[in-house]
Every structure is written in C-alpha cells, then in structure tokens.
Design goal:
This protein is mostly helical. The protein has one domain. Helix content is 52%, strand content 12%. A two-stranded antiparallel sheet has the order 1-4. A two-stranded antiparallel ribbon has the order 2-3. The protein has a two-stranded antiparallel ribbon with strand order 5-6. Strand 5 and strand 6 form a beta hairpin. Helix 1 crosses helix 2. This is Phage protein.
C-alpha cells in the first residue's frame, strides 16, 4: 500500500481517514507526552547551575494533553509545595536588586529558553519516532 502525501494537513487528513479521529488523538497524545518528557529533562539539565535546594528542578512537570486553540497541546510548568513558579521568571530573565539597583544575572539565566532551543531537535525526533509506530 502506498500513499503520496504532500504537507502536514494532507498527512493529517490521510491518517484520520485510515485510523479515525479518536485513534489519532490517542497517538498524538502519546507522541506529545514522549516529547514533553524530553523537554522537561532538558529544562532540568539547564537549571542545574541554580540548584540550591533542588526545588526549582523537582517542580518542573507537564500537563496532560489538552485542546488549546484547536490544537493538542502540553504545557510545561512548575507545580509543587515550594511554589517555584513564582520565581522562575527571575531566574530566566534576571532581575534588579531592590535597594542597590544592581542587575542580578543568575547562573541559570536563560536556561528555559536554552533548553527549548537545544531540545527542539530531540523533541521532533521523538514525535517522529512515536508517530512511525503506527
């Protein structure tokens, strides 16, 4: 059996025609979860320099797949008892110290952005590998 498919939309339509929409959502979810695990591990690796108590690294997780603006999406977030989601942006972008006005540049500054850039290829490879299991 051979199929000639050009473009993502055409591929998506062909797969939905063969397997059905519900089955495609299950496959997409598995691929998204596998890809999210790759990104979370890369974020944890990039945030190692800022490790003090380890709470920032331990609280990195991802949501269940959900529909956002008509697309299946997983969100990487910080959830935990130490509420590190409140300070992630300070570590990511740096901040000005109150009183002295001195700019503080943490060791892991830009770590989340760097993790996404460096993990992007691994993420897409993981998605392709999961989708090839069809």
């Amino acid at each position: 059996m051979s199929v000639k498919v050009i473009g993502d939309k055409a591929l998506e339509r062909e797969l939905e025609k063969r397997f059905g929409i519900k089955e495609m959502v299950k496959v997409q979810d598995k691929a998204l979860i596998a890809g999210a695990k790759v990104i979370v591990e890369e974020v944890k690796k990039q945030l190692k320099p800022s490790k003090d108590t380890g709470a920032l690294i331990n609280e990195v997780s991802f949501s269940k797949p959900e529909w956002i603006n008509g697309k299946r999406t997983i969100t990487v977030h910080w959830r935990g008892s130490k509420d590190r989601y409140k300070i992630v942006h300070l570590i990511e972008y740096g901040h000005v110290q109150k009183g002295t006005g001195k700019f503080i540049k943490p060791k892991a500054m830009g770590g989340v952005n760097r993790a996404i850039r460096q993990g992007q290829n691994k993420y897409f490879e993981t998605l392709k590998r999961e989708l090839k299991k069809l």
